[in-house]
Write a structure and sequence with these properties.
Helix content is 0%, strand content 74%. It is mainly β.
Length: 136
């Protein structure tokens, strides 16, 4: 298991990684990352940069059916809920708050095999993206 924190002037992240290692025919890894982007505006700009939270989770599972055949399942989820502020002038009052939301889900199932003459792979994937972008 790994736990970490990263920070700079624009964002702060904490992340977690768990890897089961190989247990018989099965191995799995799980990752989670939580990032908070801080508010930032240049002195002469009339709009801030995007700021707010982002979350990301992934699961990667391998199953070895036998020496020549294996399955892999990969799942990922990302959620971003950021915003920006727009001003009537660079030093003027706040006038608009724009919202940027992303909800992304993806999954894949992959079969890998081999025999004396060839290697082969069959994969099925699914992805879904929902996003709401601001109107400027």
């Amino acid at each position: 298991m790994t736990v970490g924190v990263a920070t700079n002037s624009r964002e702060m992240s904490n992340y977690y990684h768990f890897d089961s290692g190989k247990d018989g025919k099965l191995s799995a890894a799980f990752d989670a990352n939580f990032t908070k982007v801080r508010y930032f505006k240049w002195d002469d700009a009339n709009m801030s940069k995007y700021f707010g939270p982002t979350q990301n989770y992934s699961l990667d599972v391998d199953y070895e059916m036998d020496q020549n055949n294996s399955l892999n399942l990969y799942l990922n989820y990302e959620n971003t809920n950021q915003q920006f502020k727009k001003f009537t002038s660079a030093s003027g009052p706040f006038s608009y708050l724009g919202i940027y939301n992303v909800d992304r889900k993806s999954a894949s199932l992959t079969y890998n095999g081999q025999n004396d003459n060839s290697n082969y792979m069959l994969s099925a994937t699914y992805g879904e993206l929902k996003k709401m972008l601001p109107v400027l």
